[in-house]
Amino acid sequence: MPETLLALLNARIAAAARTAFGPDAPVAGPLVLPSRDARHGDYSSPVAMSVAKTLGRNPFEVAEELAAALEVDDLADPPEVVRPGFVNLRLRPEWVAARVAAEVGDDRLGLPVVVDPELVVVDYSSPNLAKEMHVGHLRSTIIGDALANVFDHLGHRVDRVNHVGDWGAQFGMLLVHLEELRAAGDDLDMANVESFYRAANARDKDDAEFHERARNRVVELQDGEPSARATWAELVELTERNNQVVYDLLSVVGLEDRGESFYQPMLDGVVEDLTAQGLLVEDQGAKVVFVDGFTNKEGDPLPLIVRNRHGGYGYATTDLAAIRHRVKELGAGRVLYVVDAGQSQHFAMVFAVARKAGWVPDDVELTHVPFGLVLGEDGKRLRTRTGENVHLRALLQEAVDRARAFVIARAEERGDPLPDDLDRVAATIGIGAVKYADLSQNRQSNYIFSFDKMLSLKGNTAPYLQYAYARMRSILREAGWADGPPGPVAIQLGHDAELELAKKLLATNDVLERMTEEYAPNHLCAHLYEVSQVYNQFYEHCPVLRSEEPLRSSRLALCDATARTLKTGLALLGIAVLEKI
After folding, report:
1. CB of 530 closer than 8 Å to CB of 537
2. 1, 25, 106, 428: which is deepest, by most CB within 10 A?
3. Which structural domain range is residue 33 located in?
4. Is residue 304 in a domain?
């Protein structure tokens, strides 16, 4: 398979820089970028600017030397040098046509599998057990899943980890409350698990005798007392089964529950290692690590607490144990934590301690992938009318119900029969709309949740792209191309709209590479929307079915490549398409 377009152009620019300025050419920064001004070409290289600065030379003259050494005759017109020192490239239509032709009928869109795959651990979703998953878990789950999908698509080994909150002091009150319910002939109602948690929490706060029994039960649980462990395991299994309903609605698969309890046997080893290295010190009765650069509001050094003054372990210790396990035992080359922005300082300190302890080699990446809040249309954090968290299962079900009403209304308006599989169509559109509305945002920003906007057929929405895909598939079926092209097709790019569509299709795999660098699914969303927009211009100006051969097959091939781009791109975002709507 061919390398991605940007990789190819970067290699050519780097080779030209070595030829023009020697093997140690001071090349820095991005080598090639998509051009912001189509009048000057498709791609632009700013390398001459950095080289000129280092060498103390005129950037325009440096750019001219770089362009003279650049060998791109096979794929682009002669390079254009523009002030103050950019080298612009315009791709040759015949080269673009040949590259796109290789994508026709290929669901990988010509994307090569990485030569040296690494193990990428993606830590996402992470609900607390004995609670309902709420809207706060939406972004972590779908952003993490999209990133994991892309790494998997590129050929990396991906470990999808659900770091569930299945351990800690709160389980003492939950165990005692559940055991008392059962002793009275009652039991936990998983349909109302939130009420169970609130009742246990209220008793723990208001009843000193209950609180003491809960504290003792935690100790028994941690010591491995059989009945405590059995009840805890049952509670974990029940709530995991409850969460699975949400994951099924979201079509999230391959996410392995590996919660806080998994790392409990490793915590003593964390303390022993930090102690042996002289990193662990006592501070107000707690065992802590001080890391340079972290201070509190008063400017005093801020410690990372590894063991509290009561001898217990907290989130930081568990996260340190998880890093040791993922890097030293699993051999991860990259570990991503898709967790809300409020945890930024926590992860920065944990990462710093793990590196200071020597557990993470320099070539291993630890990255916190933060995200903002989901807001209601009033601009405040999305909550129920009573001020409680919105349950994620209810939110998703409402999306499906609204999508069903949307499909029915549209069918009645057009006089079309309802789909035979209306439930599946409604779920595909409704869940896709929720996911895309979230993923199309800058993940670090808050966004306003609006069913009306996300279910619209106008603008950058999942239903818009799903309908666009269905229309493309209708054309292909009518042409007898339902299963792909009948054979090799020579693509012609005689019309500007054909050429622009082909160029946009070639950029898809570069967008996927960018996602692995910036961890931003909105780049893929924006690209898919742009593809659909450019396709609309192509379809408006370039008749497909009414064209004569070989132009007809060429344009059908562009339809095929566009449909596959939308289907593949949406699938990586965790969104399904519909062959007919």
Report:
1. no
2. 428
3. 5-91
4. no
Measured between alpha carbons, how far is 392 from 386 in angstroms, rounded to an integer?
16
Q: What span, in angstroms and rounded, lies between the C-alpha atoms of 525 and 230?
A: 46
Other residues' Cβ atoms within 10 Å of the Cβ of residue 382: 20
The 8-class DSSP code of residue 391 comes to: B
Percent of the chain with pLDDT over 90: 78
- Residue 267 maps to a domain: no
Three-state helix/strand/coil letters over 486-541: CCCCCCCCCCHHHHHHHHHHHCHHHHHHHHHHHCCCHHHHHHHHHHHHHHHHHHHH
Whether the CA torsion 504, 505, 506, 511 is positive or negative: it is positive
Whole-angstrom Cα distance, residue 375 to residue 383?
A: 8
Q: What is the CATH number of the domain that holds 83?
A: 3.30.1360.70
Is 188 among the domain residues? yes
- CA separation for the pair 282, 296 (Å, rounded): 18
Find out whether 76 and 91 touch, Cβ atoms under 8 Å. Answer: yes
Report d(CA 503, CA 391) in Å as an integer.
43
Rounded Cα gap, residues 161 and 308, in angstroms: 27
Q: How many domains does the chain have?
A: 2
Q: Which of 486, 487, 478, 488 is nearest to 546 (CA)?
A: 478
End position of a domain, from candidates 91, 115, 138: 91
Q: Tens digits of per-residue pLDDT, 45-96?
A: 999 999 999 999 999 999 999 999 999 999 999 999 999 999 999 999 999 9
Question: Does a cis peptide bond (omega within 30 degrees of 0) precede residue 30?
Answer: no
Side chain identity, residue 340: D
Angle in degrees, 0-180, between the axes of helices 462-478 and 551-572, rounded to the nearest 10: 150
Q: How confident is the model at residue 298 (pLDDT cuts 50, 70, 90)?
A: confident
Tokens of 207: 């009843």
Answer yes or no: pTM beyond 0.90: yes
Q: Which of 212, 142, 206 is closest to 176 using CA atoms?
A: 212
What is the biggest distance separating any 2 CA atoms in the chain, rounded to whole angstroms? 87
Q: Are 151 and 335 in contact (CB under 8 A)?
A: no
Query: Of 146, 339, 401, nearest to 252 (Cα)?
Result: 146
User: Where among 91, 106, 141 does a domain terminate?
Assistant: 91
- Where do the H-state alpha helices sit in 4-137? 5-21, 47-55, 59-69, 93-101
With contact defined as beta carbons under 8 Å apart, do 55 and 22 qualify?
Answer: no
Q: Is residue 156 part of a domain?
A: no
